[in-house]
Specification:
Blueprint: E1 2-4, E2 12-17, E3 20-25, H1 27-31, E4 32-33, E5 42-43, E6 45-49, E7 52-58, E8 64-66, E9 74-78, E10 81-85, E11 87-88, E12 91-92, E13 101-106, E14 112-117, E15 127-129, E16 137-140, E17 148-153, E18 161-167, E19 170-177, E20 182-189, E21 192-198, H2 203-211, H3 218-225, H4 235-243
Antiparallel strand pairs: 1-2, 2-3, 4-5, 6-7, 7-8, 7-9, 9-10, 10-13, 11-12, 13-14, 14-15, 15-16, 16-17, 17-18, 18-19, 19-20, 20-21
């Protein structure tokens, strides 16, 4: 391992193994905040209080500003649930894996589960949920025209595969029927079931009739089926990153 200097705010340790290059931020970067608009640095430390662990620095009013370039900046603990979230300079960010938060909890089957979120913006799969080893529920909450899309596969105690589109007060459910080996599209609003379309043969027409526009759930289903948890699923590893601030 060798160290190279790239200015005070970008000192990094570079570990080279074969063709892989792994960058690890130095203690200086982790333990000091170069706050925009200020001269000098603020010391980054660990603050703990009533089920909340915060990594950050004190501002002039002696309030803790959540900030970490090397770990989650906030951990809240409620019973068996622990939620890690990432911030810099008090602003919500996404970490290097593209996540804003990771919530570890025990699901209805009494198994360990993980709910992750990304920051809100159109076209982003902002929520993934399910057991540690797979995603069983995903949500795109900020699609065009205010549409919310959800896809789940045997999520929690449910036993079905289904895609959903929520448009105002109307829902379109596209559920796979194992017995018929086909999808069934159902349209529901606050008054009850509007239509059931076996085989979804009238899907586009019913979309326009009941939703006011067509919603192609197939593309979301395809994306969902390709999901893998390509980020950290061991919360102890996340705690280890925070431990450097103790």
């Amino acid at each position: 391992m060798k160290f190279i200097s790239i200015g005070l705010t970008a000192i990094a340790a570079i570990a080279i193994s074969g063709c892989a290059i792994e960058s690890e931020k130095s203690d200086f970067i982790c333990l000091n905040a170069d706050v925009p608009g200020e001269t000098g640095f603020r010391t980054v430390g660990l603050f703990e209080s009533r089920g909340t662990t915060t990594v950050g620095y004190l501002n002039d009013a002696l309030n803790v500003v959540r900030h970490s370039e090397c770990s989650a900046a906030s951990v809240t603990t409620e019973g068996s649930k622990e939620t890690f979230a990432w911030f810099t300079f008090g602003n919500a960010i996404e970490n290097e894996d593209g996540l804003h938060s990771q919530e570890f909890y025990v699901n209805s089957s009494q198994s360990e589960a993980l709910l992750v979120t990304r920051l809100e913006r159109e076209g982003i799969r902002a929520i993934e949920d399910g057991p540690l080893n797979r995603v069983s529920y995903a949500e795109w909450p900020f699609e065009q025209n205010g549409i919310v899309v959800q896809v789940e596969d045997q999520h929690d105690l449910n036993t079905y595969f289904e895609g959903r589109a929520l448009v105002g007060d109307t829902r379109k459910l596209k559920r796979f029927d194992d017995n018929l080996a086909q999808y069934t599209c159902t349209y529901i609003d606050e008054s009850g079931v509007l239509a059931i379309d076996n085989g979804c043969v009238n899907e586009n027409a019913f979309d326009v009739q009941f939703l006011g526009l067509t919603v192609n759930l197939d593309s979301y289903v395809t994306e969902f089926k390709g999901l893998r948890r390509s980020y950290e699923t061991d919360k102890e590893e996340l705690w280890d990153e925070i431990a450097r601030f103790r």
